[in-house]
């Protein structure tokens, strides 16, 4: 083959250029090669660029690494190793797939385009949240990926804390009970509408010890409310401690409960205080105290009355059998009135109910023979007990000796207004029975009838031994008439 002198000279020139290029590459004088391709030139970095790349990623604040197309690590900086718990181990040649859970590496190494994935790495100090991103990289003659790791743990924690704060505020605002949240220093940081309403102020920033001091007489075991906060911060839950709120516009007596505020990673950072209005309970306690005093008084009076009935019945009884029958009958009469008063909460009774209760056991099938009219007036409990005893003695006498001892006999009980001093006069009148003869001696039953109502000023009872039938007039003073 014949080559012209010009062509030969051109080949020699190109050979010299190639030899010079190889020498320059060997000696590090060339940074890159540009090779012509069919569609576009391809640039390959050579020599010093690789070292510059390594130096650059080593000083990066985030984790960084370079991997080849198979996912094998070419280089990783110290942050990258630390974030993936690799420590000081050399990761060169390690497959990225071996360091990441699941298919995370496969998700990252996407040819021709950037990709990213989220990671959660468990460390002794707690879970760390990372964002790993990849981008195609041409490093010298090697094609691969640039990998970066960004720690977003604090951002996620902040977002979760903010979300938790919003949830906590929503819960506090939605509960019916009054709720306060205190920090580690015992100062109020949060409160709901119920708490602000009953306290009358916005308590934010106030010390709980100043806002809700302990009741002086409360047996709580604490010197002040600050001790309650301290106990709650230490993990104790407390209930039913009485406090005062002098600035409250309404009731000022409250019960509080305290519980530690459970914040992950921050134990003892605060406590939750629930406030309960006990005004109704205190009112009930005061009422109960009054009722207990009243009950004590009534029991003593009842026992004294029973004792008096026992003694007087015994004095006027001819035998033990007579005493037993009379005493039992009178105690039953007293019990009947007490039962009615108990059902009516000792607020008084109508005259009709008292007389009906006392006469019913004796009337039997002849109930129609006892006529009652105008007895709808109400009297006090003391007057009801006295009227019950009087009615019992009258009906007992009527059955034994009076109108109810004969088939044609009957009893008419009526009420009228006599005067301002005696707004209620009850008349017991018997008709159709045997002729009435005044007794030759005074028995206990007569004493009960005539003296039972005299416990109150203006109260008295009189007996008229009319031959046509006994008449008993009972004057109940205005102090004992309720309606």
UniProtKB/TrEMBL annotation:
Keyword presence, Phosphoprotein: yes
Superkingdom assignment: Bacteria
Enzymatic class: transferase
Pfam family, one: PAS_4
GO terms for MF: protein histidine kinase activity
Xref: InterPro entries: HATPase_C_sf, PAS, PAS-like_dom_sf, PAS_4, Sig_transdc_His_kinase_HWE
Residue span, Signal transduction histidine kinase HWE region domain: 294-376
Keywords: ATP-binding, Kinase, Nucleotide-binding, Phosphoprotein, Transferase
Record keyword Thylakoid present: no
Reactions mediated catalytically: ATP + protein L-histidine = ADP + protein N-phospho-L-histidine
Start and end residues of each PAS domain: 51-117, 166-234
Lineage: Bacteria, Pseudomonadati, Pseudomonadota, Alphaproteobacteria, Rhodobacterales
The protein's name in its UniProt record: histidine kinase
């Amino acid at each position: 083959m014949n080559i012209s002198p010009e062509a030969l000279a051109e080949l020699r020139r190109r050979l010299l250029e190639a030899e010079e290029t190889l020498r320059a590459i060997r000696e590090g004088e060339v940074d890159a090669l540009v090779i012509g391709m069919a569609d576009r030139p391809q640039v390959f970095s050579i020599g010093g660029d690789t070292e510059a790349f390594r130096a650059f990623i080593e000083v990066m604040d985030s984790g960084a690494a370079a991997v080849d197309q198979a996912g094998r690590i070419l280089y990783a900086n110290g942050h990258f190793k630390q974030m993936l718990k690799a420590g000081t181990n050399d990761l060169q040649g390690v497959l990225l797939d071996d360091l990441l859970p699941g298919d995370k590496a496969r998700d990252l190494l996407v040819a021709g385009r950037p990709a990213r994935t989220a990671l959660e790495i468990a460390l002794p100090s707690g879970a760390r949240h990372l964002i790993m991103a990849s981008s195609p990289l041409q490093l010298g003659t090697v094609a691969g990926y640039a990998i970066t790791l960004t720690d977003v743990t604090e951002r996620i924690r902040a977002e979760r804390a903010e979300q938790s704060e919003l949830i906590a505020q929503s819960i506090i605002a939605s509960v019916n009970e009054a709720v306060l949240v205190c920090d580690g220093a015992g100062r109020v940081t949060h409160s709901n509408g119920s708490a602000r309403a009953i306290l009358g102020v916005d308590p934010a920033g106030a010390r709980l010890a100043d806002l809700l001091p302990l009741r002086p007489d409360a047996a709580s075991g604490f010197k002040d409310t600050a001790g309650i906060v301290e106990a709650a911060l230490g993990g104790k839950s407390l209930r039913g401690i009485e406090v005062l709120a002098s600035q409250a516009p309404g009731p000022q007596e409250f019960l509080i409960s305290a519980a530690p505020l459970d914040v992950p990673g921050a134990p003892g950072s605060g406590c939750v205080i629930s406030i309960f209005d006990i005004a109704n309970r205190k009112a009930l306690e005061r009422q109960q105290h009054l009722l207990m005093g009243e009950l004590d008084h009534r029991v003593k009076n009842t026992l004294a009355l029973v004792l008096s009935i026992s003694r007087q019945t015994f004095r006027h009884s001819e035998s033990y059998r007579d005493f037993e029958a009379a005493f039992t009958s009178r105690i039953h009469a007293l019990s009947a009135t007490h039962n009615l008063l108990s059902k009516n909460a000792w607020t008084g009774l109508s005259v009709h109910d008292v007389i009906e209760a006392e006469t019913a056991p004796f009337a039997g099938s002849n109930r129609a023979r006892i006529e009652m009219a105008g007895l709808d007036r109400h009297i006090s409990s003391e007057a009801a007990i006295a009227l019950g005893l009087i009615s019992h003695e009258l009906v007992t006498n009527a059955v034994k000796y009076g109108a109810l001892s004969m088939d044609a006999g009957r009893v008419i009980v009526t009420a009228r207004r006599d005067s301002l001093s005696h707004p209620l006069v009850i008349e017991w009148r018997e008709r159709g029975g045997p002729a009435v003869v005044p007794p030759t001696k005074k028995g206990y039953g007569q004493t009960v009838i005539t003296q039972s109502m005299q416990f109150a000023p203006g109260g008295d009872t009189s007996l008229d031994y009319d031959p046509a039938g006994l008449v008993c007039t009972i004057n109940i003073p205005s102090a004992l008439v309720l309606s």
